[in-house]
């Protein structure tokens, strides 16, 4: 694991890596620093930014204990490898939707864009994520919604790393 880079935190005045258009200090930084967000959409954005900033600890902290990767050995390293293998080039988030039967369950739609860090082509993922509210008042990423047909699109014509499909860790698809 010689060349794996960890934590590259942006300056508070730099544009937030979640592509909100706001400065990092006014957007995802407080959540990366430990504040709880009352909004699942904000957790989603902060998770994307955490991938961009090589912060596996935030991804792990905001993953629901029922997630299949939770506390698996090698989880932190596999997230870091994923972070290092890609550039995180764009994020669009749709309106969240509260589950009709379970108010503590919210669906978040998003499209995440990425490109291979070593010159691979660009890909985008559509997903509907399930977030659950814990008793501690924290929104945690549970899983991609199994009832939603997610799609993976190759944006550029260049060959992209097939790992984009298979190695995608939880986060915006912890699996
Ligand atoms: Zn942000």
Automatic annotation (TrEMBL):
InterPro entries per record: NTF2-like_dom_sf (IPR032710), YchJ-like_M (IPR048469)
Pfam families from the UniProt entry: YchJ_M-like (PF17775)
Residues covered by the YchJ-like middle NTF2-like domain: 40-142
Highest taxon in the source lineage: Eukaryota
Protein name: YchJ-like middle NTF2-like domain-containing protein
Organism per entry: Ectocarpus siliculosus (Brown alga)
């Amino acid at each position: 694991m010689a060349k794996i880079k960890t934590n590259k935190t942006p300056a508070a005045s730099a544009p937030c890596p979640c592509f909100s258009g706001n400065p990092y200090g006014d957007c995802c930084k407080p959540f990366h620093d430990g504040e709880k967000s009352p909004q699942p959409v904000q957790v989603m954005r902060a998770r994307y930014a955490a991938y961009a900033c090589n912060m596996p600890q935030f991804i792990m902290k905001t993953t629901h204990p029922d997630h299949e990767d939770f506390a698996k050995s090698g989880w932190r390293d596999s997230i870091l490898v994923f972070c290092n293998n890609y550039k995180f080039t764009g994020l669009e988030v749709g309106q969240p939707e509260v589950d009709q039967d379970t108010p503590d369950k919210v669906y978040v739609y998003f499209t995440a864009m990425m490109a291979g860090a070593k010159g691979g082509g660009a890909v985008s993922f559509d997903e509907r994520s399930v977030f659950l509210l814990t008793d501690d008042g924290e929104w945690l990423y549970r899983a991609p919604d199994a009832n939603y047909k997610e799609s993976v699109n190759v944006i550029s014509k260049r060959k992209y790393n097939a790992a984009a499909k298979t190695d995608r860790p939880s986060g915006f698809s912890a699996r």
